[in-house]
Amino acid sequence: MNTTLPFTPSRKEFEKFAASAEFAEAAKQYIHAKAFAQAERERVDAYVMPIFRSFTFKPDPLWAEGQDRRRVDPSEISSPDKLYLADLSSPEVVAFYAACAKAHREHGFNGPEDACPALIAKGHMIEAENALLALGCALIHVDPSTLSLSKREAFIKLLCSLAVSTKGRKFFGLSLVGSRNLVR
């Protein structure tokens, strides 16, 4: 496996990058967005999962007819993240999404209709992740779109660890117990 970079920054360039306000701010935005997305997912799941469990969803028969039939369990769909396998226009799915929209409002969400606050938070996290990744990739002259998912995740972790070790945990608000997983 070739691990050579197309461009290796000098120690001076690397230290300048690590100390830059732009890098610190991008890392801070990502770490905070990740923390919020995780908390929002837990909060939303707490009221959406009981709604989900009150329904029974079956995969759309079209999934079983195609090449993916070996990967689609014909029994019920067991989690909301697999709901795309159902007939999205079925009465059950429509009722589930309506119940979720109502529950979001009841729990203080005032964003767009038919939007999920946890998915909005995840979208913001991905935007912050992309900004941080773009900075890091510019340093090593790599196009971020060429990174595999595993390399992308590893590079984000490396960048966050670099930022925290350079600026300190307090700068990022990471003095809380259990915050280590935000940079790992």
Written overview of the protein:
The longest helix is centred in the first third of the chain and has 33 residues, at 21-53. Helix 5 crosses helix 6 (149-167). The two termini are 24 Å apart. The protein has one domain (21-182). It contains six helices and no strands. The protein is an all-alpha fold and 184 residues long.
The amount of beta strand, in percent, is: under 5%
| CA-CA gap between termini | 24 Å
Give the count of helical stretches: 6
Count of structural domains: 1
What labels would you give this structure?
184 residues, mainly alpha
Task: Please summarize what this structure is.
With 184 residues, the protein is mainly α.
Topology:
Layout: H1 11-19, H2 21-53, H3 61-65, H4 91-106, H5 117-140, H6 149-167
